[in-house]
């Protein structure tokens, strides 16, 4: 269930409606079903404009916890945590995972998926040229290298945050991709157009955080459809 307003409620900006129409046009070309009555998302005026530094630090935290999920050795994890000065920027859930010396396989898998959220933020920061359809997992090696080759300050300095309009375009598109994934699951059908449910979920989470959807903190960001 979405927390957004439908066009029928009035007061919806032409910008938001145009964005929805562009998304629907792309989905139509890709053979992805969509719901014409799915609401529009926030407009440029309504979206939260996060700072480059805030997005960069969140990206580094995600890359770090994803690496821990992959099996990063404890000693190296502790060194990275201190050298990148990430502790103050980790969420409560992330910190609990990082400090757990023997996390469950379930938790490790869940945090390994954060590579996809990090990839989305790497796109927002200009390190990744384009997101493309959420149909395959990201280039984990490239993502890890963007962090490994830089200090925290260098990573922030090298970041170039994309315009909020571009971020909203992707947020609107992923909202509709995610509806298609969930609709197929609900009906017991095959996921359409080769979409990957995990990639779609993580990308939606990251984009909703980027635009400040319902002003939710990272650990509590919802991906309503």
If you had to describe this structure to a student in words, what would you say it looks like?
With 225 residues, the chain is mainly α. It has 2 domains: 7-48 and 166-192 and 207-215; 52-158, no CATH class. Helix content is 56%, strand content 0%. The protein is built from 10 helices and no strands. It has helices at 14-30, 52-70, 74-83, 92-99, 105-112, 114-124, 140-148, 152-158, 164-186, 197-210. Helix 1 packs across helix 9 (164-186) and helix 6 (114-124) crosses helix 10. The longest helix is centred in the last third of the chain and has 23 residues, at 164-186. It is globular. It starts with 13 loop residues before the first helix and ends in a 15-residue tail after the last helix. The model has no long low-confidence stretch (mean pLDDT 94).
Task: Give the low-pLDDT segments.
Answer: none
Helical percentage: 55-70%
Terminal CA distance: 5 Å
Spatial extent as radius of gyration: 18 Å
Order of helices and strands: HHHHHHHHHH
**DSSP helical segment count:** 10
Average pLDDT over all residues? 94
Number of strands: 0
**Count of individual domains:** 2
Q: What coarse outline follows from CA principal-axis ratios?
A: globular
Largest sheet: none
The assigned structural class equals mainly alpha
Residue fraction in strands? under 5%
Summarize the structure.
This protein has 225 residues and is mostly helical. It has 10 helices and no strands.
């Amino acid at each position: 269930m979405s927390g957004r307003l439908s066009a029928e409620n009035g007061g919806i900006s032409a910008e938001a409606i145009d964005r929805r129409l562009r998304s629907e046009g792309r989905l139509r070309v890709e053979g992805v079903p969509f719901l014409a009555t799915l609401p529009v998302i926030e407009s440029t005026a309504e979206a939260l404009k996060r700072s480059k530094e805030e997005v960069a630090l969140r990206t580094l935290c995600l890359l770090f916890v994803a690496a821990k999920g992959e099996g990063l050795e404890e000693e190296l994890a502790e060194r990275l945590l201190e050298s990148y000065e990430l502790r103050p920027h980790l969420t409560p859930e992330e910190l609990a995972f990082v400090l757990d010396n023997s996390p469950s396989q379930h938790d490790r898998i869940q945090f390994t998926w954060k590579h996809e959220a990090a990839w989305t933020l790497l796109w927002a920061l200009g390190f990744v040229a384009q997101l493309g359809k959420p149909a395959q997992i990201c280039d984990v090696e490239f993502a890890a290298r963007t962090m490994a080759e830089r200090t925290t300050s260098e990573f922030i300095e090298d970041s170039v945050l994309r315009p909020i309009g571009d971020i909203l375009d992707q947020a609107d598109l992923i909202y509709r991709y995610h509806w298609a994934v969930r609709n197929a699951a609900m009906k017991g059908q095959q996921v359409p157009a080769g979409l990957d449910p995990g990639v779609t979920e993580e990308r939606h989470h990251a984009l909703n955080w980027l635009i400040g959807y319902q002003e939710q903190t990272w650990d509590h960001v919802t991906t309503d459809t």
